[in-house]
Amino acid sequence: MSASKPLVGISTYLERTRFGHWDVEAAVLYRGYLDCVVRAGGNPVMLPPVGTWDAESIAFLDALVIAGGADIDPATYGAEKHEKTGEPRRDRDETEFALVGAALKLDLPVLGVCRGMQVLNVALGGTLHQHVEGHNPAPAVFEHTEIAIAEGTALHGILGGRTTVQCHHHQSLDRIADGLGVTAQAPDGTVEAVELEGARFVVGVQSHPEQDIEDLRLFEALVSAARREA
């Protein structure tokens, strides 16, 4: 563990990006993730979907965030592509599955955000509903959803029994992977959070906590877990 501020790795994505005089492919990440980690007491480290990621290569980290983003390739959980499923981003899939596996091997605290929760479920053997209605009102518009959180869970200790979250997704968890427990649901039954049994801190949320840098509870819990010796 770091002697100073915990180092929190955050997965990124490759996108065509314009900055300065340039219009090139770049590794990018919504800044809210960085600000939330910093304000929660950590130092962010961006992890691009290139190179080889394993336990040895991320051993310098104290915690991991799998960020939101594009749909996971349904072939990774044995399904045919739905007509509303986005084009696969196999570079991210491969990298983030490897990052999750490495983090679990090292018992690093992990926070999966939206796609990140889905990555966690698929990486452990679960599946997804490839399209659901009501949680993605329009591009770049978040649905405010009140979720119910199960008592006795880590998430309940962080957020309480009910809270309102910001959602922007059209896929959701279907079959829950062995070892994961459902800890929160939306009024329509959509799985809104999971936790890995027996882990120091492995939490997935379907919502986007990085959208509210005034509510740092989840990121503070992640950084606090990173500060504790395994």
TrEMBL record:
The keyword Membrane does not apply. Keywords: Glutamine amidotransferase. It comes from the Bacteria. Pfam families: Peptidase_C26 (PF07722). InterPro entries: Class_I_gatase-like, Peptidase_C26, PuuD-like. The keyword Protease does not apply. PROSITE patterns: GATASE_TYPE_1 (PS51273). This is Glutamine amidotransferase.
